[in-house]
């Protein structure tokens, strides 16, 4: 049995006016809450080789600090070492958010300016190398260590060192216990993560030409965070404004559809191909979800070949015009995907559409290309479920157990999602950080393959300053920030996925060895991930209990 990490070791400072102490990754403090900081144990659980482990420290001072920098030392265990390059120490930035509606569980609907109280919340894991820290304020510091896959098991010691213009240094030691276990590379994680990407948001925020090389360069660090989280799906759009422009930056179509003067159709896949190729280069290459055959406004874009203008066809699913528009495209798109070797992993994807509209879309697809896979994120529809290769239902719904077993046996993808419909658990900026990890465990506990969220980087106008949006609680439409800045929420999501991966590996071993005691302990903690326990105890209690089982 591996023991938990060591007790807290006192801060070491050369300046009596500066304080640096370890907290917990579940902690968030207002900027002026210096007196509320509680010292905790960092890296409190053994870490597997290949795992990314995180801790959080808090820096305060009774005088202004200028030019503060942070670094992590090499970590040593006898003659063995984890180099400093395996670690990253970052300032945590505060961003404006609004509170949740206390009268409602669902948080959907427009939020008028000033309707809800606003506050600054620690969320941005920044990329700034130095920072000024005003006197009497809390400056969180996020520390992560990605343990090398070939690290020698043992207890490693290191330090986080803070130094600045007016003082030599302040440091805190830590110990990281590395278990004799290996977590696979993120690309090989079994957990099916599907966070929807918005390339249009990146182009607008940086004011660069859409699909230019500069645009792709700016997207690379943003999408790399997602790849390192084990993301499985590429979000592609085959229609203009599939969600009717609900985000600050509307999605355009990555496929140009032209109706020629003679009535024939032609299709240009240049942008679609470049986007998929780029995401493959980043490391996201398992699945391509193409939205959508059923847009929310039921308007279907095309170029009029005679005039060169963009036009829109109004057509209801099931109508003759709808079938004509989509039949020819589905046939040509399937041919193109086969030519590129992408057909088997591509889905025609829909989002929160009613059963009758889904039936109409499925009829078109199956009449033209019956091997095309289909995805739906929305309500559970019993009649069409067997025809959906990738099915995701809302958090408060449930799959019949026999359906889960059959879908698992048939190799289908079965997940759950949260959105504005859940005040908790969720990943709003004001959500308790452990709710992100809790949701990953919840997916495992329900027998699902993973988790979906509708927005990874649909940024607000200026997300580094203000996460509030006109339609949902702050942070609902993005998990990360520009230029490769992660968030506390995103890091906790990754933590939960890693824990689910470890639980899967261990449970397979315990089943093979007939270790019913361990399996029973795991089943007991999985049972904690239910709505009633969450409501009564919050997310952290269940997450800590689950981690304890994995640590033994």
Q: What are the salient characteristics of this protein?
A:
about 550 residues, alpha/beta, Immunoglobulin-like, six-stranded mixed sheet, 11 helices, disordered N terminus
How would you describe this protein?
The chain has helices spanning 199-206, 213-227, 270-282, 320-340, 355-368, 401-409, 434-445, 488-513, 516-526, 531-537, 539-551, and strands at residues 12-13, 18-22, 47-49, 52-61, 65-72, 75-77, 80-82, 87-98, 118-125, 130-133, 139-146, 154-164, 167-182, 192-195, 233-237, 256-259, 265-268, 287-291, 299-304, 310-314, 346-351, 373-377, 390-394, 413-418, 450-453, 486-487. The model is unreliable at 1-9 (pLDDT under 50). The chain has a domain at 12-94 and 122-181: Immunoglobulin-like. Helix 4 packs across helix 5 and helix 7 (434-445) packs across helix 11 (539-551). The chain has 552 residues and is α/β, with parallel strands linked by helices.
Report the structural category.
alpha/beta
CATH class bucket of one domain = Mainly Beta
Please give the number of β-strands: 26
The CATH topology of one domain comes to Immunoglobulin-like
Q: Span between N and C termini?
A: 5 Å
| Largest sheet: number of strands, sense, barrel closure | 8 strands, parallel
CATH homologous superfamily (4th level) name of one domain: Immunoglobulins
Morphology: globular
Mean pLDDT: 95
Work out the radius of gyration: 25 Å
Strand content: 25-35%
Count of separate DSSP helical elements: 11
Strand order of the largest sheet: 14-25-24-23-22-21-18-15
Helix content: 25-40%
**Uncertain regions spanning at least 5 consecutive residues:** 1-9
What CATH architecture of one domain would you give?
A: Sandwich
